[in-house]
Amino acid sequence: MQIDWITVAAQIVNFLALVWILHRLLYRPVTRAMQRRAADIRDRFAEAERREALAVEEADRLRAQQRDVEAARAGVLAEAEAEAAALRARLEEEARAAVAARRAEWEDQLDREQAAFLADLRRGTAAHVARVARRVLDDLAGAALEEAVVDTFIGRLRALEGKPLDELRAEAVAAGGEMAVSSAFDLSDGMRARLCSALDRVHDAPRVGFDRDPALVCGIRLRIRGQTVQWTVDAYLDDLQNEVAAQIDRGARDRAAE
Amino acid sequence: MQMTPDGTILFHLGPLPVNATILYTWIVMGVLILSALLVRLRLSDTGELTRWQNLWEAVVETIAGQIREVSGQEPGPYLPFIGTLFVFIALSNILAVVPGFQPPTGSLSTTTALALCVLIAVPLFGLARRGVGGYLRSYIQPSPLMAPFNVMGELTRTLALAIRLYGNVMSGTVIAGILISIAPFFFPVLMQLLGLLTGVIQAYIFAILAMVYIASATRDRPGAGMPKGE
């Protein structure tokens, strides 16, 4: 074990030269390269973090925007639903009103048609009854229908008693005996004389005016100012009309129930 | 048996004899400088790195980490010295597996030269970091009476550093020589492979101890960087 000091000196020189060379060629460039790479990586991380922060911010902004859009959509939807409900209610109301109007119109028309039908029926029935009565009277008594009507009317006049007769007489006195007799047919002189004679119960000196009124269906009417005494087929026709009307109403209800 | 390559004079460079130690040292230096040149010429900051740059970056980063760990300081000022100690000793020991190559660390002259470099580097780093007063104060700590012992410790640890490396490398060579004479076909190979491991460990120990000495000289509290058991 010996030390060669020349070799020691040479090795010291070699080692120091190697330190210097490696420092210039290796350690400094490599260290700087690693530092630059580390700085670059730090920059990239910083950039990535910055972008991530931006992305998070953007995501938050988009989420908030989405919430706003959803809220706006919900609002618009609710508003549209409300408008639709209002429109539906209004249309239903209008439809109900239209249906009600149509129904009222239809019922009015039905009433008018019913009234017209009943009027026609009454007229037809009256005419028919008159024809039947005339034929019956002709067959049974041989007398004219007018005679029977006049007799019936005279009978009614004579049947007046009490308050109605008093009121009639008071009116006749107030009118000065003037009174009017209307009939559905022309009265013969005999008929007029019999009527005048019957009217003596009402006034001592009756002044009777005769005229013809076709609206009196097979009847005679006495009018003294506001008081009226009449006999017509109308009462019977009214009963018939009421009965027919009741039948029509019952048929209409049955159809509605079906 | 030739114990040291110092005695093998190969040629003379002028008046200076060039022995095997110096020649193999130049070979090791050549390999290191060549690989450093390969790294330097194709140095890349980003992108793909060459294999050489990857290797050297790993080595440099490891050494820098060890320096940082031992000294608690930034490795910048110490990296060239400590790094060169490590890579030179390690490559010298690794190349011992090449037949015919005699590691220069097997020469007491080489290890003495390296230990002297450490001996000189320790006060230089200490003076550079702490100033003259601060560094000289470390010799009279904890008491001025300890100054002779501190100076003696400085010298003996340098001697120990040189002898340790020399002894380890030389012992490996001696054991290989003995085993070749006894069992020439199998055991020398195992010993050479084991030598790879012990060579790198020796390089690590030498560099770490050098860094510990430097750290003790550059710290305000002497001995703070000393590992346990040293």
What is this structure's SSE topology?
The complex is a heterodimer of chains A (258) and B (230).
Chain A lengths: L4 H136 L4 H15 L2 H13 L3 E6 L5 H10 L8 E6 L7 E5 L2 E5 L2 H24 L1
Parallel strand pairs in A: 1-2
Antiparallel strand pairs in A: 1-3, 3-4
Chain B lengths: L8 E5 L2 E4 H22 L9 H21 L7 H16 L13 H30 L9 H36 L4 H32 L12
Antiparallel strand pairs in B: 1-2
Care to describe what's here?
Chain A: GO terms for molecular function: proton-transporting ATP synthase activity, rotational mechanism; proton-transporting ATPase activity, rotational mechanism. The complex is a heterodimer of chains A (258) and B (230). Chain A is α+β, with helices and mostly antiparallel strands and 258 residues long. Chain A has helices spanning 5-140, 145-159, 162-174, 189-198, 234-257, and strands spanning 178-183, 207-212, 220-224, 227-231. Chain A has a four-stranded mixed sheet with strand order 2-1-3-4. In chain A, helix 1 runs antiparallel to helix 5 and helix 2 packs parallel to helix 4. Chain B is 68% helix and 4% strand. Chain B contains six helices and two strands, in the order ββαααααα. A two-stranded antiparallel sheet of chain B has the order 1-2. The longest helix of chain B has 36 residues, at 147-182. Chain B starts with 8 loop residues before the first strand and ends in a 12-residue tail after the last helix. The interface between A and B is large, with 33 and 46 residues.
